[in-house]
Target: FAD dependent oxidoreductase domain-containing protein
Amino acid sequence: MSSSSNTYRITIVGAGIIGLTTACTLLKEYATNENLQLTIISEKFTPETTGDISAGYWEPYGLKTIDERILRWAGYTYNIFLSEFFSIKASCGGIMKVTSYRLYGFNGQNKDNNINNTEKPKFSELVRHFRLLDQHELETFDHLKPTSGFVMSSIVVEVSKYLPQLLRFLSQDNRVKFIKKKIHSLIELKDKADVIINCTGLASRYLVGDQTVRPARGQVIRVYAPWIKSAYSFDTDEGFGYVVPQSDRVVLGGTFQLNDWNTKVDENDTRKILRMCAKALPALEQIHSGRVDVGLRPYRDDGVRLEHEKTIDGINVVHCYGHSGAGVTVSWGCAKDVVDIVKTLLPPNSKRQDNLPEHEQLWRLVPNFKYIILRAKI
Ligand SMILES: Cc1cc2nc3c(=O)[nH]c(=O)nc-3n(C[C@H](O)[C@H](O)[C@H](O)COP(=O)(O)OP(=O)(O)OC[C@H]3O[C@@H](n4cnc5c(N)ncnc54)[C@H](O)[C@@H]3O)c2cc1C
Ligand SMILES: O=C(O)C(=O)CO
Model:
């Protein structure tokens, strides 16, 4: 399997949130493998990845089904992000805990028929402080007149601040190499890697010929609204809207347009997003400008593809793509499963360094990381 020097040559294609989270998890699991050579090849790096545009909000969204895998990945990711160690030490990595309100039904029409006043979303058991809103609380959103809703503690990851932290963490390890390049076929890597990890998102449509991966176009607006400190998502008569606070801007969304490849700003979408969000939070009617971003979520008909494939050319590939609107939400859970598969192909030569919780191990392995965080914080 590996080259004669028993070197473990692993190549990750894609440096979005999925690729970089996977790389960090690999370093944790192969902490004492001096024989590891990890190459990260990507056409684009932050801030040009899909995640950089995203609202970075924790909630499984934009998936045809929220199955056991999604719940397991999302729950694991939630705990990593909310662990004391991670949120304190990584706070300047753009990670925030937010109170989040989800409001169903608009003007009393409960369009989302499978949600009523008593039903909870599948992920309610995964999060802290989840509670259904009572009638009095629902009435405080009288401009929307929701029929039901809930409140919980969620997480916001400002990906354009977070990915640079992961890159710094990775670049502290001399086993890691970065290559900024577009590859046209995995065969190009055949004799250079023992295992390839495909984290190319929507581009997997071309790179591995998966025609079930399609764009789900998302447009968002970043506005200056410092009075908004909670997250809101809601139904309106024009669709699903959301308001997600980040460190110095608030992300207003959004659109979810399947098979729409347009990456240019659509002014009608901008006006619609502002109208929807102002229905939920009328003070937003004062907002007339912001930075508009467009991204193409990697939607996949059968959901996330996370599996090992031995190609006809004998290449070991572990695929991890198709996260649609939930790539941030499931990132650490997916990375763990990907690396568990890699470990069956290239067994790491040691167990964890001590019995620290998973997230502490990850960051404790590279003291500089904490230093980087503290330095960045200063
Ligand atoms: C508007 C919007 C809002 C969103 N909000 C949220 C949210 O609130 N919460 C959430 O969880 N998710 C959200 N998402 C979804 C989330 O952004 C994606 O699920 C996630 O970014 C996918 O990550 P990825 O690493 O798989 O793909 P990408 O970020 O697209 O990264 C793929 C990488 O592969 C590289 N690549 C592709 N092809 C090649 C090639 N041939 N050779 C070399 N490199 C290649 C690219 O350059 C890129 O670096 C949102 C998305 C959008 C568009
Ligand atoms: O727009 C998206 O993809 C989201 O996940 C919003 O939270």
Observations:
- The radius of gyration is 21 Å.
- Confidence is low (pLDDT under 50) at residues 365-378.
- The longest helix spans residues 327-345.
